[in-house]
Amino acid sequence: MRDQVEQGLRRLRVERLQLLQLHRIDPAVPLADQLGTLRELRIEGKISHIGLSEVAVAELEAARQIIDVASVQNRYNLLDREHETVLDACAAASLRLSGDQWRRLDRIQPR
Are 54 and 40 spatial neighbours (Cβ–Cβ below 8 Å)? Predict the structure, then answer.
């Protein structure tokens, strides 16, 4: 993850990423290790804010014990309310939730 951030900084020709959105938590790597690396990069000044994507409430709560979560981006739209509990947790913690508008076509029921 550190190498990817370093490469991104070079490609973008910037010294700091304003927001790094962790799009998928790697199930093979402990969450604390992933977020610990991002926290270190923030302390080093390479990342300003850290966001999470496609997380459950338990993952969000665990993450908030390790880092300041700036944003949460989960799939959420009129047809897909699977992450309603995450929306509630974000509201309770005054976090922004960005609901991805995409939807899986296989979940839409024909009329």
Answer: no
Taking Cα atoms as reference points, which of 2, 40, 34, 41 lies closest to residue 18? 41
Q: Tally the C-alpha atoms within 13 A of residue 92's C-alpha that lie toward its C-beta.
A: 10
Q: Quote the CA–CA distance of 93 and 98 in Å, as a whole number.
A: 14
Q: Which of 34, 32, 24 is nearest to 56 (CA)?
A: 24
Instruction: Look over the chain and give the mean of its residue pLDDT values, rounded to a whole number.
Output: 81
The answer to whether the CB of 100 falls within 8 A of the CB of 76 is: yes
By C-alpha distance, which of 51, 38, 33, 47 is closest to 2?
A: 38
Judge whether 61 and 27 are in contact, CB under 8 Å: no
Cα angle: 24, vertex 85, 37; to 5 degrees: 30
So what's the pLDDT on residue 75?
67
